[in-house]
Every structure is written in C-alpha cells, then in structure tokens.
Amino acid sequence: MIITKEKIDQLQSWVEEANHIVITAHKSPDGDSVGSSLGLFHYLKKKSDKVFICHPDEAPDFLHWLPGYDHILNLDQHQKDVEENLSKADLIFCLDYNSPGRIGKMEKILTASDAKKILIDHHRDPDMEFCELMFSDITACSTSQLICEIIDASGDDHLIDETLGTPLYAGIITDTGSFRFSSTLPKTHHIAANLMEHGVRHYKVHENIYDTNSLDKIRLSSYALLEKLEVLEQYETAFISLSQEELKRFSAQKGDTEGLVNQVLAIEGVKMAVFMKEVEGIVKMSFRSKDNIPVNELASNHFSGGGHLNASGGKYVGGIDDAVKKFVTILPTFVEEHKAQFNEV
Ligand code: 5GP
Ligand code: MN
Q1: Residue 121's closest CA among 94, 100, 151?
Q2: pLDDT, tens digit, for every residue of 164-173?
Q3: Segment 183-233, tens digit of pLDDT
Q4: Are 46 and 159 contacting, i.e. CB atoms less than 8 angstroms apart?
Q5: pTM of the predicted model, to two decimals?
Q6: Mind giving me the DSSP string for 234-296?
Q7: What distance in angstroms lies between residue 185's CA and the mean position of ligand 2's atoms?
Q8: Which residues does ligand 1 sit against, CB inside 6 Å?
C-alpha cells in the first residue's frame, strides 16, 4: 500500500501546520508535471493561503491555457521570487521526479532547505534520502493520478471542481497517450470518469492540448519525417535527429518537437524509436519502445538519463552528428542483449 491512512494523516497535518507551502516539479515541464502541480495547487488553496508553485523552467505553450498557469513561477524568469519562496518554505512538495538531480538549477536551493518534503511520483528507483514522506508508486500512470488518489483518500473528493480537475485530467492524458499506454489501468478510467463527473470537459482538454499546433510546428514535423527519418530495419529501430540549425530554420519553440518520437514508434515493424535534438552544446535524447524493451537502461547506461521502461530520456554532451554516431554504435549490442524482448510478438 502506497497511500496509507497514516501517510495521509501525516500529509494533512503537515499542510495544516505549514506557513509557506511550495510545489516543485522536474525541469523541462510536461503535461503531468504542470498538471499535477496545478491540481495540487488548487486543492491546497482550499486549505491554505500560502501556496506557491516553483518550477526550474517554463512549460511549453500548449500548457499555458491550464487554469492557474499564471501562478507558476520559474527559476529562469523569476529567479528572485523562486529563491525567496523556497527559502521561506516550511513544506515542499516534490512532484513527478524521483531525485533532486531532475530539477536542474533548483537542486541546490531545494536540498539546502530544511523544510519538510513530500514526494509524490511514479518514476522508478526513487532516491530514498531527500523527502521525509514518500508517495512513490511506479504502477501509477501519472503523478496527476496519484494526486487524485490522495485527494480521495483524504475524504476531499467533494472539493474537486472544473478548475482543480482540468489540470489533473490533462496530466493523465498526456502521460498515458490519451489512455493508450500499458500504464493505463481500470483505475485510471475510473479516476478520469470521476473528474468528468466533477465538471471537467474532457473534449476541451484534448482540443486545447492537441489541436493548437502552430504552422511552424506542423512544418517542422513534416520535414523531420520526410527528410530526417532513418529506419534501421535490421534492428527494428528508427530515429530522427535535428540540428540546432534545422530547429532554427522552422523557428522551433519549446514543445514543438514533442510527440515526434511517438510518430516514429507508430511505424509498423519499429520497436524502438529515438529522437535527438541539439540544444546549446548538448543533445537531448528521447527513447520510446514497444513491448518489454527497456529503453530506460539505454538512457541510464549510455546517456546520463533514465525514465520508464517504454519512455525514457537522457543527454549527450557534444554535437548532433556525434550523438547519432554514438547511438548507432551502441545499438547492435543493446539489441543483442535484449534479443528476447525484440523478438516478442
Ligand atoms: P521525454 O523523452 O519525453 O523527454 O522523456 C520521457 C521520460 O524520460 C520522462 O518522463 C522522464 O521520466 C525520463 N527522462 C527524460 N529525460 C531524462 C533525464 O535527463 N534523466 C532522467 N533520469 N530521466 C529522464
Ligand atoms: Mn509523469
């Protein structure tokens, strides 16, 4: 049991005692980190006046419509406010990350703080040291789902309204690929249905997230798929790489390449998909797989990263051509080591 009565009582009494609560989440925010932060924010606001959200950097545009988004402070743009809030905090929530290394430049301030810390997360291998109270459930499809479960276990289901539920619904659909990944459990559908019953308009969430692409983004995706897709049939693997110059050519904004790696994985016969993009001296790597192919191993063993079995990320320090070379070099060994998983039908 991850959500026990004792832990819920502890959480609620810490919230009651706290004078300054700060919600944090991982760098390069995604739908789940922003959704869970805002869902928890709206929930805690019903119990406390002093609740703040501090993220390491700004979220992509497709998340800016979420109710309460303007309350999110990020270290890049609001350094003074973030530092001040974290230093005043006596209770810090750590959402959607499993170790302090995942919050980038905010790590130092967070680990220096003597505030009580509560982790709510669904990533593997959580660091057991940095939070006093942990809700770590690797079977949860999303941190947003865990927030719903915590609200329910606290007897506060009646507090859910459209404002509170919408970000949580957004977090669930973005982390489950709209209920299609294997992490989606019957429970996930029950929780989503409950959010709808409390006023969440699911079609609005989908429309705002998936039907608001800029023309530049569509053109960049088309270019990437037409000109930059490489399929290595022998290894049932395909990848796309984009240089800084190519991203600039299409005026790529944060989030514009999101989802491309899933399109690569959607190709028949492809069991592993990789997307690499060059940003300021490093190459950000995204890995996706089908079946039981553990791309988190690839990410952690070779690209200083990690993540989930079927969705992981990491980085390569250097240029895009060298990143591609490194990936292509380690690929045959990885496939050989995981022959059984690649051959699964
Ligand atoms: P994405 O490819 O969407 O950037 O990341 C997919 C998943 O991989 C994320 O949800 C996260 O769990 C993990 N991930 C991405 N980048 C990193 C990284 O640099 N380090 C670690 N440990 N995990 C990462
Ligand atoms: Mn997540």
Answers
A1: 94
A2: 999 999 999 9
A3: 999 999 999 999 999 999 999 999 999 999 999 999 999 999 999 999 999
A4: yes
A5: 0.91
A6: GGTEEEEEE-HHHHHHTTPPTTTTTTHHHHHHTSTT--EEEEEEEETTEEEEEEEESTT--HH
A7: 15
A8: 123, 286, 305-308, 311-315
Whole-angstrom distance, CA of residue 150 vs CA of residue 138:
15
Domains of the chain in sequence order: 5-210 (3.90.1640.10), 215-344 (3.10.310.30)
The tokens describing 326, both together, are 């490194």
Residue for token pair 């944060």: 254
Confidence of residue 327 (pLDDT cuts 50, 70, 90): very high
Q: Which of 329, 238, 328, 339 is nearest to 288 (CA)?
A: 238
Average pLDDT, the chain: 97
Q: How far is the CA of 313 from the centre of ligand 1 (A)?
A: 4
Quote the tokens at residue 216: 């530049």
